[in-house]
Amino acid sequence: MCGIVGLHVREPALYPRLGELLTGMLCQVIERGPDSAGVAVYGDPTMSPPGQTSVSVLTGDRQAADLVAAVRAQLPASTVTSYDAGQTVVVSAPVPAEMLLAAVRTGVPGAVVVGYGEDVAVLKGVGHPRALATEIGLERAQGWQGVAHTRMATESAVTPEGCHPFSVGPGECLVHNGSFANHATIRRELRAEGVTFDSENDSEVGARFVAHHLAQGADVEKALRLLCERFDGFYTLLVSTRDSFAVVRDAIACKPAVIAETPQWVAMASEYRALAGLPGIENARIFEPEPEEVYAWQR
User: Fold this and answer.
1) Verdict on whether the full-model pTM lies above 0.85
2) Domain of 200: which CATH number?
3) Within this chain, do residues 75 and 19 fall inside the same structural domain, yes or no?
4) What integer pLDDT is reported at residue 40 of this predicted model?
5) Does 257 lie in the same domain as 273?
6) I need a labelling partner for 153 at 20 to 30 A (CA). Which of 78, 91, 161, 181 fits?
7) Last residue of a domain, one of 76, 97, 118
8) What is the pLDDT of residue 80?
9) Residue 62 sits in which domain range?
10) Catalytic residue (choose from 2, 173, 228, 254)
11) Is 2 marked active-site?
12) Residue 12 and residue 16: Cα distance in Å, rounded?
């Protein structure tokens, strides 16, 4: 099952409403995945302060305050800020991403990083999606783009590590409905090329594949076309970066998806009802994405 929603805002006047609108969309697909959820928010000044790098870390059995203190011990303490979202904490600092990532991994051995980059916060965890949205403070979020996912686990355990989005490159996020039949083969191939994994989730393999090709110079559209060529299975994918928003389905369009577009925004969801409350939906161009056709929008 699983539920996907995403909103790419074109009209700056709507930026303050991103979290409100994304929460409404997420709560319309809860039945598709009631065991866990996650979101990625682009452009919220509290979650990911502008001009800084942010790293999202699972708290696990640690207190968020202790985790942040351990990172501050690795950097000038006054430069490090944080956003506590319960099962995830976002730490930010005006330093390069590699430096902040190193500070997290040195200060908190074994920490699971679930997202990093500029202007992005990745927040996820186990539990009812509506409760998690409240824990995260999603309704208060601002920004120009957000993606969210409700999970019904089929390929791996229900853990925060297995939740979507999978964000394994700078500012890159992938949410997935479906399953990849040959994920074990592709995981072995990527590991042979030095790629590491945080879970046994098949969706993470897709995210690592996309990130691997983006790092080699492909754009999002090309990376998704390569994924369609290489992966077997049934899927709808939404991939976002700081400046792009892209959707693709498998060769027979087995998994549901609907896109709506207006001059003010572009939105995607597993079901139309998740789009029905968006402002101006009555004037939107609404369509189902065609099989293996990549649809992409740029900021």
Assistant:
1) yes
2) 3.60.20.10
3) no
4) 97
5) yes
6) 91
7) 118
8) 96
9) 54-118
10) 2
11) yes
12) 8
The domain total for the chain is 2
CATH number at residue 91: 3.30.70
Question: What's the pLDDT tens digit per position in 79-92?
Answer: 999 999 999 999 99
Structure tokens at 92: 């930010």
Please state the length of the chain.
299
Q: Which amino acid is at 94?
A: P
DSSP the chain: --EEEEEEE--GGGGGGHHHHHHHHHTTSGGG-BSEEEEEEES-TTTS-TTSEEEEEE-TTS-HHHHHHHHHTTS-GGG-EEEE-SSEEEEEESS-HHHHHHHHHHHSTT--EEEEEESEEEEEEES-HHHHHHHHTGGG--SSEEEEEEE--SSS-SSGGGPSPEEEETTEEEEEEEEETTHHHHHHHHHHTT---S---HHHHHHHHHHHHHHTT--HHHHHHHHHHH--EEEEEEEEETTEEEEEE-TT--S--EEEE-SSEEEEESSGGGTTTSTTGGGSEEEPPPTT--EEEE-
Q: What is the mean pLDDT of each successive set of 10 residues along the chain, which is 299 residues long?
A: 94 98 95 89 98 96 95 93 96 96 96 96 93 95 96 70 88 93 96 90 93 94 96 96 96 95 98 97 98 96
